[in-house]
């Protein structure tokens, strides 16, 4: 699965492409050191294939590389963060 990023000054999205379908996780940039993940969208054809989890992990890894924090407004990401206590270094 390939995950790419689209970045704008105000936010962006992480995009996963698999089996000809696209899933996304969108975020807003609150400051240079803070993003707000606000939505995860996975089409039915990709459900149960770990695509959402891969997007969430990608966001955490990007935050670690960029030295910023994540505020999880998206219910899916928030649930993933609660299941992964080792993400506490970047998830507020």
Total E-strand runs: 5
Radius of gyration: 12 Å
Q: Give the spatial strand order of the biggest sheet.
A: 1-2-3-4-5
Order of helices and strands: EEEEHEH
Averaged pLDDT: 95
Tally of contiguous helical segments: 2
Residue stretches low in confidence (pLDDT < 50, at least 5 long) are none
**Helix content range:** 25-40%
Largest sheet: 5 strands, mixed
Quote the beta fraction. Answer: 35-45%
Structural class: alpha+beta
Measured distance between first and last alpha carbons: 28 Å
Tell me what you see in this structure.
This protein is an alpha+beta fold and 92 residues long. The protein is 27% helix and 41% strand. It has 2 helices and 5 strands. It has helices spanning 51-66, 75-83; strands at 2-8, 11-18, 21-31, 34-41, 69-72. The protein has a 5-stranded mixed β-sheet. A hairpin with a 2-residue loop joins β3 (21-31) and β4. The longest helix is centred in the middle third of the chain and has 16 residues, at 51-66. The radius of gyration is 12 Å and the shape is globular. The chain starts with a strand and ends in a 9-residue tail after the last helix. The model has no long low-confidence stretch (mean pLDDT 95).
Q: What distinguishing features does this structure have?
A:
alpha+beta; 27% helix; 5 strands; five-stranded mixed beta sheet; 41% strand; 92 residues; single chain
Secondary-structure blueprint of this entry?
Layout: E1 2-8, E2 11-18, E3 21-31, E4 34-41, H1 51-66, E5 69-72, H2 75-83
Parallel strand pairs: 4-5
Antiparallel strand pairs: 1-2, 2-3, 3-4
């Amino acid at each position: 699965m390939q995950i790419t990023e689209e970045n704008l000054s105000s936010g962006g999205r992480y995009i996963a492409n698999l089996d000809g379908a696209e899933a996304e996780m969108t975020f807003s940039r609150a400051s240079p050191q803070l993003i707000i993940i606000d939505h995860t969208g996975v089409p039915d054809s990709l459900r149960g294939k770990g695509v959402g989890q891969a997007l969430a992990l990608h966001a955490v890894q990007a935050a670690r590389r960029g030295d910023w924090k994540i505020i999880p407004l998206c219910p899916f990401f928030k649930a993933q963060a609660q299941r992964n206590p080792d993400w506490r270094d970047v998830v507020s």
